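Exercise: predict the fold of this chain.
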Amino acid sequence: MTWKKAASVLLCAALAIPAVSVPARAEEIVDYEPIPVVNGGFEQSNDSLPGWTVVPAMPSAGLEAAVSQDQAFAGTNSVKIVDNSPKSLEVSSGLIPVTAGKTYRLTAKVYVTGKSIRGYLRFKKGGSGTDLSGGLNTQLISILSANNGWQTLTIEAKAPEGAEFAQASFYMGAAGTGTSAYVDEVRLELKTVAVVNPLELPFDPPVVVGDAVRTALSQSAAYGVGPDGRVEQYVTTVGTPVAFHTVDAVTGELLFSEPLPGSDTIWGLTPASDGNVYFSTNGELYRYAVAERRIEALGQNPSNKQVFDLKASRDGKLYGATYSNTNMGRVFEYDIASGTFRDLGVMKAGQQYARGLGVTDDSVYVGIGTTAHLMRYDRRTGEVTEIDIPGVSGLSGTLSEVAVYGGKLLVYAGAKLHVLDERTHAFIRTIDFQSKVSPPSPHNPNWIYYKLQGELYRYDLAADAVIQVEGVPELPDDTAVKAHAWVTPTTGTFAGKTVLAGMAAFGESFLYDPIANVYEEHMANVPPSPATVNALEANGDYLYVGGYQRGMSVYDTKTGQFVHNNQSFHQPEGIGFLNGVAYFGTYSGARMYRLDMSKPLEYRELEWANPGLAADIGHEQDRPFAMTSGDGRLFIGTFPTYGQLGGALTILRETAAADGTGIAVEHETFRHLVPNQSVFGLAYRNGKVYGGTSRVGGLGVDPTEAEAKMFVFDTTAKRLAVQPFTPAIPRLTGPINVIGELSIGPDGLLWGIADGTVTKADGTVDHYDAALFAMNPDTLQIVKSKIIAQSPFNTSKYRPYYLRWGPDGLLYTTIGRKLFAVDPADLRAKQVVEGTVNLMTVGPDGSLYYVVGSKLHKIPVKIDRVVAGASNTSLHIGEASPLSAAVWLVNGKQAAWDGAAVRYTSSAPGVAAVENGELKAVSAGTAAIRAVVVMDGRTVESAPVEVRVYPDRFADVLYNPGGKLKGELKLDSPPTASPVTVEVHGPEGLLASQTVASSTYGSGTYAYAFSFKPSELDPKTVNTIQLKAYLNGELYSLSPWIRQTAPGNGHIPPGRE
């Protein structure tokens, strides 16, 4: 089997057509079928040019035409063509058979290093050297004045009459010297035009369901004093948009709140020397004017958009630490008085994160990642030096924050606090802690406080001693502290006392008096914000939704309601299903949480619960994006943590708990199946897991491998079934960057998506060609493929392109970060909605759900019909019957109700009235009942259901416990044809019937007597009956339900004696 990529036949991408359009006309689809060019990539020899001729023959003074390894667009070789003589030089391919009248396209990659080179597509007959097109099919490629590099030559022309062969030629004329160029990847293709019918999609326009996840997560906070002298707490909340809030630091009362559109997180926030609060998001610096309770924008910093920390100096300066994977980790300065910015530059060459800051009068200390370094910037000289932390510096990790207190440097790295001497930089110790340390206590300047899980600790800077504070309640243990400060409240328990304040990530706030050892908690009353949706999957009637940074919800498609919302749930990256139960793969640490919607809900972060922690993958893994299941196992693909390469495949299964009362989870992890690559897509079939990779690893580290690969893992042998390989996907000419998702289709083929790199002339990435392919899972050969879309150059290398099969037989996908429908038979494709779509899934009725920001959208399947129904359409006066409506879709599915509204109408309310979804018989006659359904912005009316209300003309009815039944039927006139029939019905149906032949006349009516024997009615089992009378073959009268009664207590219809 050959895995080296080569060009082969593939249909070209269809035009993206918006959904919900008028019926589409047939359209022409242009395609190019590759025709072999002998040695078109110049790889067959390193010292000759088989398949090519050179005129004049080499060697020739001042001319050169030879294989070269100096430059190559693909592979290792190209042909170098140089003309430093007054002669012309031409390098031509062999003759390639063509058909006259057909159109052909010649392409080649050309790197001009001197002046220019001209390419020709020549057509010839037999052994003639004459170009039948007269040399008109040509293109000149000249050297670029800026960003010179590989360019694409493209010539398209029709083969003229008599043409039998085509030839590619590259020519340098005799008019000048100093021309030179490299040529590579010469290809010839036949242009074909097919007339096809575009996909007709079964959808109506999208509707907005609403914000899917709401959370009050904070990533930054601070304390200060407000205009009225109250101690205030400044809190930011993550969301779309992000928001800034001011609350009373004693009561949690909300005092000020303002959203900031255009961003989702504020990491850096600090009080400054002017008494105001400063924060930054999306590169913009903001000031919250405390006295005026007003936010103002101050401008973009000159370093990078992502600001992770912001600290203030005592002399009116602000410093910001930033991240960029291209511009590297930089620090900026802002002068409050002048309102000016200054970029202080990259703090550590090659490192992307300037993460944490500590500021003194003469220094700015900068924590670096994802290889950990502590840097010192001299505020007077601008000199940058490194401070070594033994066992930390130079190793994988990020120093997330720096504090400088009491002559000590306190450097945060994950759950470790490293203490150094500020003057000598001598290492003192490492402390286990959680997220933040307090400023020194005003009661003892050597004491700082911090939280570790649910306990409060004190560290003595002078004595280098750690002490657990006893006698205080447990602190919020599930979340990290975002701010500490010493405050003096004017109200409440601690009025007039200087106490320690702190706030955890969800607004859990506390005040602690170290003198009295008294502790109080309250919540910062900040409104939850809509979170950007980060994960979306469907299973059964539920949609499972995960929020960015925090939050999770469950949406019931039958009711149209969010039935569960967990604001503190860790950020889900991917969601999978096993045995009908949802598994959430969360960031960070690649922890798997299990949720069973059929059981009572109780969340615990670090324990077995519902939802609760089911598995901790470990193995330096961080982000579980890819999941699939089969044969009672869940297969999970992950990306590693910051600064690491090498993802993993984890196999999880459920077993009976040891005590036999519940479920236990076992898992096994296999890392580095594809060295230095992460798992981007997974599919399962017959004991084998098929995987696709992404070249990237954790954030902050560059990929080392040239191309993404596929692998096949044998779950029985627990090893690779074949060595990792890069599939040869037609028309993907550049290196494949990612492969995934993968899915076994209804046709048994292995379907997947791959991004092929397309570069600019300067070698940088322009975009990716996104190809859909189907592979034989046994032979691993490509069966069909097509470039559907282009992925932007900055597309996520972490989130897969999703593949979902609809009940209509179409494949729905986010290929190219757009929502497409694809016919798997012929790969016709159609864009369903405009714009970027990263997340989508298919609901139980075939409707599509997708996400834009925080909003969940639904693309409903078109309605075929609404069917109204009544449990009984033949009623007696006074009888009630429940009404119902069912919505049937054009795909044959019954619609999920999704919160639709329905109302019922009656054509004759005086006969049959509708009230609260129930039909009530009022008087004899007929009425047409219709259901009017409002669903997803559409109003549809059902066909009428005819309901008839019959009079009760029975009199003197006696049904006693002995089973005897007798009575009379009253008629205003005798029957004209057939006799009168009386039927007796029980709850299970017809019991007996008889024809009434005798009649008596009196008072202008005809009375027909009837009588049934006990043997006909089985009174022991039938306690309730209903009478029906048929006149002339049609139902004439209908009685209410009649119970057995004592003798003499007969049934008398209303209004009759």
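Check your answer against the key: Helices lie at 1014-1017.
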